[in-house]
Amino acid sequence: MRAIVQKVKKAKVEVAGELVGKISKGFLVFVAVTDRDNKEDIDYIKKKIEKLRIFEDEEGKMNLSVKDVGGDILIVSQFTLYGDVRKGNRPSFINSSSADKAKEYYEILIEELKIDGFKVETGRFQSHMEVSLINDGPVTIQLDSEKIY
């Protein structure tokens, strides 16, 4: 499972002109699933999102989590995180999971973050989305449950 976490001042997702998700201060998280993923991969990404310390403390050091600052989380599915362009210029998505598995894992991640007390907004799975954000910093962190990076 892969995730791109962006620290944002605000972010929103629209589908066909309809607002489907919106947050203020917090994380915009793009998530992708591969067929190799299992429950442990969801747990790894969830814990990293919850505990990632990229908000500044009173000394200006990145030392606070999204929970510490009372931030929200906007989760957006993005299978293209597994796009592979090592051969040619057209991405191969062979490493992206099936839509059924991706949706199941995406929904589990969202539900588990909510159970842990986070306000979570979402995009709309398998839809053409327009994502708007104000990246704070900018700060963007890559997560990979296979610990490739």
From TrEMBL:
Keyword Endoplasmic reticulum: no
Protein name as annotated: D-aminoacyl-tRNA deacylase
Task of the protein: An aminoacyl-tRNA editing enzyme that deacylates mischarged D-aminoacyl-tRNAs. Also deacylates mischarged glycyl-tRNA(Ala), protecting cells against glycine mischarging by AlaRS. Acts via tRNA-based rather than protein-based catalysis; rejects L-amino acids rather than detecting D-amino acids in the active site. By recycling D-aminoacyl-tRNA to D-amino acids and free tRNA molecules, this enzyme counteracts the toxicity associated with the formation of D-aminoacyl-tRNA entities in vivo and helps enforce protein L-homochirality.
Major subcellular site: cytoplasm
InterPro entries given in the database record: Daa-tRNA_deacyls_DTD (IPR003732), DTD-like_sf (IPR023509)
TM segment ranges: none
Compartments reported by the entry: Cytoplasm
Biological source species: Anaerococcus porci
GO biological process: D-amino acid catabolic process
